[in-house]
Write a structure and sequence with these properties.
5-stranded antiparallel β-sheet; 6-stranded antiparallel β-sheet; about 30% strand; alpha+beta
Length: about 350
């Protein structure tokens, strides 16, 4: 799965793999074979477009079966395969309709059916579920994953949807500015982002990132956040051995929403601004006495204010009041430190990276 902001090059990359765009440098290898100069119709690659690209004068059945008809498959076999894949994608009741008489979701599934019916050696998907409602999107994810596993079909999937990226991908590649900035297992990219861009792009809600200073006072190491101190234990210092060289240095501190915990005796005093209930989680939005930090236009931006908002993910039964002080502690095993100049991750030796 490839994720990244609009305009970063995700679709262009897919089109180069498919042969629809020229490769200006580097090679496209499929099964170890260079295919840069192979015509698109000889690459045995199927692509599901975001815009459906269905033939308006054909019925759904004719659209789905078109690749097999071009390959000269017998009509009986073609009809059987069309009905099989249509049934899998829950569009077998609209096979006699034309695309103009389908809903957006039905058109999307018809385009997917057309892409997988030929069982290509490589399937490219450019946000194929973007126009489906939430329930149908979830169902379609399961169907696509089932087809992909059953056919052992290598798939390159572009999406903006975090749930799709985390649940469907065996590997996750994050793109920015035409380059892949990190790749690996989705959980590793989520838990160990290499830089600020990845940290704030991967995951929902986005990672909290605030300004902090690493200090050593009387042999005790701590992170100073505004006027508050968060002591660091020995386990954290062992996990982040490079911290020994950061005394007095300002850094960007990254904390996932579920790594902040309500704690009456916690070191962080927060001012609750709002709460939001989503499914079985409650999100608490609270201000902290420290500037917020973002990664924008390929540079680290430190907010000029003295306060920023943190998002905490807590149990729905956790009592939260807008009128009382809210204290929290941090799961120190999940903090991330980033350089304020480059945005790169700090403090982790390569041996400690997943």
């Amino acid at each position: 799965v490839i994720v990244g902001p609009s305009g970063c090059g995700k679709t262009t990359l897919l089109r180069m793999i498919a042969g629809l765009e020229d490769v200006t440098s580097g090679d496209v290898l499929v099964d170890g074979v260079r295919i840069n100069d192979v015509p698109p119709n000889r690459r045995d690659i199927a692509m599901a477009f975001q815009s459906y690209a269905l033939y308006p004068h054909m019925t759904v059945a004719e659209n789905i079966g078109f690749p097999l008809r071009i390959d000269g498959v017998h009509a009986t076999t073609l009809d059987r395969q069309v009905r099989k894949v249509a049934r899998t994608l829950q569009i077998d009741d609209v096979l006699d309709r034309t695309p103009s008489h389908l809903s957006g979701g039905q058109q999307q599934r018809a385009a997917l059916a057309r892409a997988v019916i030929r069982e290509p050696r490589l399937l490219l998907m450019d946000e194929p579920m973007s126009n489906l409602d939430a329930k149908l999107r979830s169902q379609t994810r399961i169907v696509i994953c089932g087809i992909q596993r059953r056919l052992a079909l290598t798939t390159v999937h572009v999406t903006h949807d975090q749930d799709e990226a985390m649940s469907m991908g065996d590997r996750l590649a994050v793109m920015n500015g035409g380059r892949i900035v990190q790749h690996g297992r989705p959980i590793d990219v989520y838990e160990a982002p290499d830089n600020l861009f990845v940290a704030q792009f991967v995951g929902a809600p986005a990672m909290n990132v605030i300004a902090a200073t690493f200090v050593v006072d009387g042999g005790t190491s701590a992170l100073r956040i505004g006027c508050q101190h968060v002591p660091l234990d020995d386990e954290t210092l062992q996990r982040l051995p490079a911290l020994a060289e950061l005394d007095g240095r300002d850094v960007a501190l990254g904390i996932r929403a579920d790594a902040l915990r309500p704690d009456a005796g916690g070191p962080l005093a927060l001012s609750v601004m709002a709460t939001e209930q989503i499914d079985q989680r409650k999100y608490v939005f609270a201000d902290v006495d420290a500037p917020s930090i973002t990664y924008s236009d390929n540079r680290v931006v430190v907010d000029g204010g003295h306060e920023s908002s943190l998002v905490l993910s807590v149990d729905p039964n956790t009592p939260v009041s807008l009128w009382e002080s809210f204290h929290a502690s941090i799961d120190l095993s999940r903090i991330h430190l980033f350089d304020l100049t480059t945005g790169s991750r700090l403090g982790v030796s390569r041996a400690n990276r997943p």
